[in-house]
Design a protein that fits this description.
4 helices; 8 strands; Prepilin-type N-terminal cleavage/methylation domain-containing protein; 198 residues; eight-stranded antiparallel beta sheet; transmembrane helix; alpha+beta
Length: 198
Amino acid sequence: MTTLFRARNNREHGLSMIELLLIIAALGLILGALYQFLLLANRQSRSTTFKQISVDQVNLLLKSISQEVRNALLVNINSEGGDINYFDSQIEEENPQPFLLFTLFIPDPEEESENLEVRYEIVLNKNLWEDKGEKVYMLQKSIYRESSLVKSTVLIDNIYSLEVERTSQKISIEVGVVLGNRIRYFHTSVTVRNPLPA
């Protein structure tokens, strides 16, 4: 009976130090892999959310531009726009000035003047250009009242191309935007209520 008790006692003895270290190492590997998986899933989720927000912003912007163009008193298209290589050739590196795409004249909502002049321009991100030498182009909207600047806003901060075309009473706008590592194109076509200048 004593021998049986002693044998059972030996079997119920705790884990050895080596077994314990192996279990801790295995748990460490499993938890490390789980952490990496969750980190990757979180990054992808944030990237997808960012891209969707960017897509929504561009769609909203084109809708806003379409309404402005449709209701404008006058629309002047100064250029058909172009792609990034075209902007490179048009914007001077030494003294980068905005590249005017088109101008709208809209009624002044505050009735301080007869109308407001709205300019849509391609501008070079001067900070990135001066700091890193990176050419990143932005779409900017500037509002003027009697030739005085009222407000200037960057609408898209990573633009690849912008084409503006007109046919009789219709204006078509296509915007290429850099989203992640690819370019996404957005398009809108607007029928203008007021006559376009020849």
